[in-house]
Amino acid sequence: MAWKCPQCGFVHDEAALRCEACGFTRAGKLVLVAEETSRRLSVGVDTAIGKHLLRTFAGGDHVYAAEPQFLLARDLVAGGWSIAPAPGAMNPTFLNGAALAGAPAPLAEGAVISIGPTRLRLRVESEP
Ligand SMILES: [Zn+2]
Questions:
Q1: What is the pTM of this model?
Q2: Does the domain formed by 24-127 have CATH 3.90.226.10?
């Protein structure tokens, strides 16, 4: 299926992830890869990630997560995905070794999400 760039209107075929006219990066699917189990969670829509979902793929460290622990959202302006900590989570969510402030932060391919500096390490990948 073709898609139309929301920034400049240029039409692309399905395989293109990036608009060659203006550089807009399309938000494809986001994949979280749990380092402990090597299992993957593929996310295609804005999703709150918490203990129950993490228990299905991320191994024993899901016990450190709240319900929800963090929120994944597509960034329709800048393209790609962002992460925001859920209000009220007991343990802080970290991105690349630094605690997330309240504002959403962009998620780059290869970024590492964790709870505290070392628990529940999830590597970020993307797929079309
Ligand atoms: Zn464009």
A1: 0.81
A2: no
